[in-house]
Amino acid sequence: MALRRSVLGLVAATAALLAPGTAPAQTLKAVMHSDVKIVDPIWTTAYIVRNHGYMIYDTLFALDADGQVKPQMVDAYTVSPDSLTYTFTLRDGLKWHDGKPVTAEDCVASIKRWSARDSLGQKLMTFVDGMKADDAKTFTVTLKSPTGLLLFGLAKPSSNVPFMMPKRVAETDPNQQISDFTGSGPFMMKTDEWKPGDKIVYTKFKDYKPRAEPASGLAGGKVAKLDRVEWLAVSDQQQAVNALLAGEIDLIEQPAYDLIPLLKGDSNIKLVDYNPLGLQYAMRPNHLIKPFDNPKVRQALTYALNQTDFLQAAVGEPDYYKTCKALFVCGSPMATDKGMDGLLESNFAKSKQLLKEAGYDGTPIVLLHSTDLQTLTNLGPVAKQLLEKGGFKVDMQSSDWQTVVSRRVRKDPVDKGGWNLMNTSWVSADILNPVMSSFMNMSCDKAPFGWPCDAEMEKLRDDFAREVDPVKQKAIAEAVQLRWREVVPYVPLGQYYIPIAARKNVSGILTAPAPVFWNVEKK
C-alpha cells in the first residue's frame, strides 16, 4: 500500500505542475534485481552497477544483436598493415553531462582505469605498447604484437564494461570508488534524488547524439524515448509483482520464478526473453586463506557439489534452467565437456578422501549467503548441505547482496571480516572464452576477488589471446578446462534463464546481455 500511495501521490503532483495542454513526461518505473548502493561500474563487477553504467555512460565500441563488434562513440578507425597500430576518431557532437566535449584524452584515461580492474582488460594491456591522444578527437593504441583482443575488449558487453568517463574522473585510483558521476550516455543520474534503499532516478540527456543506425543489442542508436526512469528498491517480490499487476510500476527485471505463473495469467503483462544465452551460477573460493589455498580442498568442491540441486532450489521450473558442465556455457562456440567426467555428481566419498589427503582439520568455512537477491537466495542453504555431506564444516553467514559485494573484496582472515566461499552468477556474455571469464583469471593479486594464482593457466590464456584461428582457439579452451580441473578457480553450478516482466504498454526492450532502457517507450 505504501508503494501505491507514493506512486499515486507522484502522479497527482506531476499533473498539478503541468501547464494546460502540456503532455506529461514519460516516466517508467522499474524494480531491478538489487538496490543501487555502489555506483562505480569499474570498481565492482556487480550487475546492478553494470546496469547503472549503461544508463549514464557510453562505450567506444559495442556488440550488436549478432555478437558483432560495432563502433559506438568511435566514428572511424584505421589499422596499420602490420596490425600493430590502431587509430581511432571520435564521433562529432559527443558531450559530457556537464556540457563539455568528450575528448580523446578522456578515452585514453578511461581505458587505463578499466584495464587495471577488468580481467580481459588486464590481459589486453599485456599486448599494448602505448596509448596516446593525437588531438582532441583522435587517439592511437600501439601494440607489441597482434591480437584480436583490442576491438573486442573495447566492446566488452558486461562486467567490467569499458565505460568512458571524463579524464578527471578516470584518473581516480582504480582501487578507490569514484565520487563524480558525470557520463556522456543517453540518461543522467539525478544525484539529488538518489536514496539508497528507496530509489535511484535517471532523466533523459537532451544533448545526447545517438548514432544514425537502428539499435541492435548494445550497439546502434541509443535513442532515449523515456524522459525519466526510476528504479525502485522493492525487495519483497510479491509486493513488486502486485505493483506490476496493478499498473503501479512498469517493469520487473528479474521476477521470482514461483510468481511467473501469476504474471502469465494477466493479459496486461508480457515476459521478454531478452538474454537467450542466459546466465551461469558459480561458486567462488577464496584462494588466499585456508583451507582453499590448498588445491585438493578446492578439488573436493567439484566432487561434493552437483548442479541439479542448485538449479531446482534456485529456479525450480525446468523450462528456465539446464545442467551444463562447460565452463564457457552450453550453446557457445567454446563449449566443451572435456575433463568433466565424474565431476559435479555429489561423490561425497571422493570429496572426503581429498579433504583427508589435504589435511583439512574441520575448521568451519565461512560461506557468504545473500538473502535479498531472489536468484541467489536458495543457493547458500543447498551449498551448506552438500558441502557438509562432503566432509566440510560450514558457517553460513547471511546478509543482503550489497553487503556480500562489499565483503567479498576483503582479503582479511575470516575472524576479521574475511570469507572462504561465496555464490554468484555470470551472464553468459561474460564467460564465452578463457580471456573474457573473470573467474579464469589466475594472475594472483591482479585477479578478481578470490585471487587465484597459476602461471600455467595464465600462459594458456595468453595463448588464446594470441590465436585467431577458431579451431585452434577451441583446442586451447579445452586445455584450459583440463587445467581448471587441477586448480579449480571456481565451480560452475548450472545455466539458467530469467525473463523481464513488463506491462504490455512498454515496448522496445532490446535483446542484449544486459537490460538497457534506450529504445524503450511507454505508450
From TrEMBL:
InterPro entries in the record: Peptide/Ni-bd, SBP_5, SBP_5_dom
The Solute-binding protein family domain sits at 68-434
Q: Name one GO cellular component term.
A: ATP-binding cassette (ABC) transporter complex
From which residue to which does the signal peptide run?
Answer: 1-25
Q: Which family does it belong to?
A: Belongs to the bacterial solute-binding protein 5 family.
- GO biological process annotation, one example: peptide transport
Organism lineage: Bacteria, Pseudomonadati, Pseudomonadota, Alphaproteobacteria, Hyphomicrobiales
Keyword annotations: Signal
Residue spans crossing the bilayer: none
User: Under what name is this protein listed?
Assistant: ABC transporter substrate-binding protein
Recorded GO MF terms: peptide transmembrane transporter activity
Intracellular or extracellular location(s) = Periplasm
